[in-house]
Amino acid sequence: MKYYLFATHSNPNLLNELVKKSNKLVRGKCKISHYKDGEILVHIDEKIKGQKVFVLGSTFPPAENVLELIILINTLRANGAKKIVALIPYFGYGKQDRIKYSGDAMSAKLMAKIIEDAGASEILALDLHSQRVAEYFKVKITELQAKTILAKALKKLQLKNLVVLAPDLGADERSKKFAKELGVKNLAAIKKHRPRVDEALVINLKGEIKNKNIIIVDDMSQTGGTLTKVADFLKAKGAKDIYVALTHLVATGPVVENLKREKNIKKIFTTNSIVSASDFKGDKKFEIISVAELFVNHL
């Protein structure tokens, strides 16, 4: 049986890959445009009443991506879709998952509720920034993990004397799982402090990294600040080659240019949850791994 896959404008290349790789999906025709005043206009050009449908959309900036996703989901529900499964390669607004300081927002909880209220029946999301995000959803949510495909790409390098490093305490569990996937026993971790939002300061290092090849593992980077500071710190401590395994490269900020300039990072492996391979054509420092098969295998 074939199911319609509708999509926002957030992941056009991934959309094409999903339809090509899956024998279950056909691209659903819909129009997402704007009224003259800038408001988003969505129109479904398929008969979907009583059917199960899929929707592809990420919520990275600009906020237009969020609006397109929730309006598209709600339009499908209003037109009679029986079940709406949202495929979310990157769940933005996941960083504000709790009230850490008085006056903080809880954007992650709000975003989960908005997507549910719009009409999503089930969620497939890739590497959530926080486990609290999944807890905020009342509908079924499945978190896909990119560690397998990223580790597979790194194994091709046949690196020796490897250490898998967590760039902060929040990435510690993620780095351990990645090391297990990679078959690496040597672990290290950085303890850091953020004096201001989006600014990281390295405090100390746990583990031995001198004369070792390092793989820094994290779920996302939006400025590259943590990665560049950690790479500089590791080099000063005697590390050899430094690689990065990153699920989400939030290229709406300065991260790409910052990482391109960072001479202490040899290569960066990331997914097409936000960026696409065509964005880095001819740039050997970045290798973009497709997540299409991950999603197709869980449909």
UniProtKB/TrEMBL annotation:
<dbReference type="GO" id="GO:0006015">
    <property type="term" value="P:5-phosphoribose 1-diphosphate biosynthetic process"/>
</dbReference>
<dbReference type="GO" id="GO:0002189">
    <property type="term" value="C:ribose phosphate diphosphokinase complex"/>
</dbReference>
<comment type="similarity">
    <text>Belongs to the ribose-phosphate pyrophosphokinase family.</text>
</comment>
<dbReference type="GO" id="GO:0000287">
    <property type="term" value="F:magnesium ion binding"/>
</dbReference>
<dbReference type="InterPro" id="IPR005946">
    <property type="entry name" value="Rib-P_diPkinase"/>
</dbReference>
<keyword id="KW-0808">Transferase</keyword>
<dbReference type="GO" id="GO:0006164">
    <property type="term" value="P:purine nucleotide biosynthetic process"/>
</dbReference>
<keyword id="KW-0067">ATP-binding</keyword>
<dbReference type="InterPro" id="IPR029057">
    <property type="entry name" value="PRTase-like"/>
</dbReference>
<keyword id="KW-0418">Kinase</keyword>
<keyword id="KW-0460">Magnesium</keyword>
<dbReference type="InterPro" id="IPR029099">
    <property type="entry name" value="Pribosyltran_N"/>
</dbReference>
<dbReference type="Pfam" id="PF13793">
    <property type="entry name" value="Pribosyltran_N"/>
</dbReference>
<feature type="domain" description="Ribose-phosphate pyrophosphokinase N-terminal">
    <location>
        <begin position="5"/>
        <end position="119"/>
    </location>
</feature>
<keyword id="KW-0479">Metal-binding</keyword>
<dbReference type="GO" id="GO:0016301">
    <property type="term" value="F:kinase activity"/>
</dbReference>
<dbReference type="GO" id="GO:0004749">
    <property type="term" value="F:ribose phosphate diphosphokinase activity"/>
</dbReference>
<keyword id="KW-0547">Nucleotide-binding</keyword>
<dbReference type="InterPro" id="IPR000836">
    <property type="entry name" value="PRTase_dom"/>
</dbReference>
<protein>
    <recommendedName>
        <fullName>ribose-phosphate diphosphokinase</fullName>
        <ecNumber>2.7.6.1</ecNumber>
    </recommendedName>
</protein>
<dbReference type="Pfam" id="PF00156">
    <property type="entry name" value="Pribosyltran"/>
</dbReference>
<dbReference type="GO" id="GO:0005524">
    <property type="term" value="F:ATP binding"/>
</dbReference>
<feature type="domain" description="Phosphoribosyltransferase">
    <location>
        <begin position="137"/>
        <end position="258"/>
    </location>
</feature>
<keyword id="KW-0545">Nucleotide biosynthesis</keyword>
<dbReference type="GO" id="GO:0005737">
    <property type="term" value="C:cytoplasm"/>
</dbReference>
